Amino acid sequence: MFPRNPEIYFILPSFHLKIMIQRIRGTRDFGPEEMWKRNWLALQLRDLARAYGYREVLTPVMESAELFVAKSGPGVLNEMYSFRDKGNREIALRPELTAPIIRFFVNDLQDSPLPLKFFSISNCFRYEEPQQGRYREFFHFDVEIIGSSEPAADAELLLLSNEVCSRLGLKNYSYRIGHVGIVRGLLDAAGLDKARQPEFLHLIDKGKRDEAEALLLSSDVGRGDVQQIMHVCNVKGDLSVLYGMDFEGVDYLRSVLEIAQSGGLHNYRVDLGVVRGLDYYTGLVFEVDFPELGAEKQICGGGAYRLSHLFGGPDVPATGFAFGFDRLLIACERSRALPEEPPLDAFVITLPGVSYTEGLEIAGMLRKSGLSVETDLMNRNLSKALKYASQRRARFALIIGEKEKDEGVVLLRNMMSGEEARLPAAELYARIKV
Amino acid sequence: MFPRNPEIYFILPSFHLKIMIQRIRGTRDFGPEEMWKRNWLALQLRDLARAYGYREVLTPVMESAELFVAKSGPGVLNEMYSFRDKGNREIALRPELTAPIIRFFVNDLQDSPLPLKFFSISNCFRYEEPQQGRYREFFHFDVEIIGSSEPAADAELLLLSNEVCSRLGLKNYSYRIGHVGIVRGLLDAAGLDKARQPEFLHLIDKGKRDEAEALLLSSDVGRGDVQQIMHVCNVKGDLSVLYGMDFEGVDYLRSVLEIAQSGGLHNYRVDLGVVRGLDYYTGLVFEVDFPELGAEKQICGGGAYRLSHLFGGPDVPATGFAFGFDRLLIACERSRALPEEPPLDAFVITLPGVSYTEGLEIAGMLRKSGLSVETDLMNRNLSKALKYASQRRARFALIIGEKEKDEGVVLLRNMMSGEEARLPAAELYARIKV
């Protein structure tokens, strides 16, 4: 049988063979060097969070889409990976970790003594055009306090996030700290319809002051009120800018900052125009900037909020923050040298005439002592095996030939210096360990 | 305006308020105690894999669905979470980690010196009815060697997986080890159409020997060949069952097992009926059972395979295994006591008349020394604060009242014994550290 279209017949298979299946755009593979750094960073974050009494939790990657709609409104559906599963339920890949942790609280932890102090380090997803520093799969270091509406709770988050930055050696980072309740209180007092307030706050959040002012003027807000509101949204400076201000929320914010200052937070600026884009924030809001990252300078954001009752739980206050793990890692790299993946301690080579299992025995002994050891899995000759050991960045090669076997020794070769020594197996560990 | 149907009008909102948003069926939230154990297990696995020279990698949760179709055939679409993204691309949540790691190799690592030895610990997804020990989001500890087809590589995986089990203290686990090439070679020699071989192997894998035999008999396979094939699929026992067998693959399997035995693997049984359900296996296949888990007794599976060329890369051999992380953790718990989340070291309480920041200073000092310390974030009175400290399993309470402040001491209360002491701050660490 001759195929009807021989060209397609022959071209299709080879075409198929050459197409390389690619990772999905906006996602990343992390190789060993990168993973070493990421694990190192996660370890630092775990240690710090635990020092403050935070305990690690982990929620599923998949959640009901309604969870995030309840939190952020239906617009979030356009920014999430969401899909209907085979049972026609709308599933979302979590875009952040706060809502899932509060959902966990609502489902299982309502009877726990409060506050609950949790942290989580895990991956999140968003469906948007990938760009410099923004990925479709990214990672958050998320910290939440559930159950406290005291200034001490908000201050603790400022102090913990500050200690994260300072302990990691970040240079030139700074806080912008506001209180969304202050602006909301003024909008209420001025009679701006609750339904229009989010729009105003979004405009302020985006820095569109003129449009925000126009919104007020086009509403029933009096000119004096408009001036006052626009003035308050522009209040920036140190703690002293809050003295003499007599609006709801100002005293609270002052208490938070006084505690935070006494605990060592100084590199901040009050900015009452920081209102963050999301409607569920109720009080303190803050952002941490690392200016060297330009458009991606914001490495952390947080604040006080209420979500539990939206998910069917009790109406409890909560406060939290999230670091962008990927950005935080870049900020670390820009600020200091990061620990590198250690090299392989030893590569074991058995020469012809010596059984592979002789080398395996040496390797096993050294592995049990805590060293990292490879044996040659390719049945290579000496020069090729040494070349691989060098590419693999092994610190030492251990060579066992017939001569060594007869003498009961191993030839230890320092791969950096080329120095060699012939030692009984029992003496290897002491020579190899760092 | 009176609503047309007042019942619905009033019932709907309250109905909404009471509906609790639930986690998705078949997924889990991990609380702090569970996370402590999971982190502990991950650390053990990392340490062991690194001792053998394996390096950690991490691939994205989302992959092109075609990756898994190329590996396992279109049937896999029914068992995966897959969906079309907004660009109409078919996306899958990875059901396992092998294909993504090989895809990573094909995309970025073809020029690396071989073998590449990688491991990964991460979450996978499958869309099937949740049941005891089977979740829709689950975790794999995956280990791969890319580039070697030597017995030493396969033996290393047997030895590493064995060391995982033994170092974790697993009781009564055992290996079943086969070589799918032996049975395939016999099917080829007997003239069974390549297209029908997977069907036969699937039946053997499921233990449906009668149906497998019927399949051969209904094909053009001679009666003598059928007998021989069914006999070989039933070969079980120690290494000696392979002596005297003269089929392709037998020598290779013997070499693997001789190395593995010399490296300490003894709790295994040759079982040539172990062919694993998946078509891409080419040589060694093995499974580790922990019988106490009943229907979920298989805690690990692995083998030699070729996938790279299916993804558009070079045709390189590879071999690997995956432990079910969740099952492995259960097997650990059934075998031994696991380390528990340590209690909070200290809970700091400041009494009326003493500033909260006095306590914060003490807490900060102790945290810097490596202790885990909480301060009271709820502004509670002494008895309520002590109750919380006790529920929170704090080892010590540190109480600062006006009297203590005046005397320059802190009241240290052992929460287990009730013992109390009054100490200067500088002496606290020595008394609290374990």
Which secondary structure elements does this structure contain, and how are they paired or packed?
The structure is a homodimer of 434-residue chains.
Chain A lengths: L5 H13 L13 H20 L3 E2 L5 E3 H8 L9 E3 L5 E4 L4 H11 L7 E10 L11 E10 L4 H17 L6 E6 H10 L7 H9 L3 H10 L4 H11 L2 E2 L12 H13 L5 E4 L9 E9 L8 E8 L12 E7 H11 L8 E7 L5 H13 L4 E3 L6 H10 L2 E7 L1 H6 L2 E5 L5 E4 L4 H5 L2
Parallel strand pairs in A: 1-5, 7-9, 13-14, 13-15
Antiparallel strand pairs in A: 2-4, 3-4, 5-6, 6-12, 7-10, 8-9, 10-11, 11-12, 15-16, 16-17
Report on the structure:
By secondary structure, the first copy, chain A, is α+β, with helices and mostly antiparallel strands. Chain A has 2 domains: 32-335, 2-Layer Sandwich (BirA Bifunctional Protein, domain 2), CATH 3.30.930.10; 344-432, Anticodon-binding domain (Rossmann fold). Helices cover 38% and strands 22% of the residues of chain A. The first copy, chain A, has 15 helices and 17 strands. In chain A, the strands form 3 sheets. The first copy, chain A, has a 9-stranded mixed beta sheet with strand order 1-5-6-12-11-10-7-9-8, with helices on both faces. In chain A, a hairpin with a 5-residue loop joins strand 3 (82-84) and strand 4. In chain A, helix 5 packs across helix 10 and helix 7 packs antiparallel against helix 8 (209-218). Chain A is elongated and about 100 Å long. The N and C termini of chain A lie far apart (69 Å).
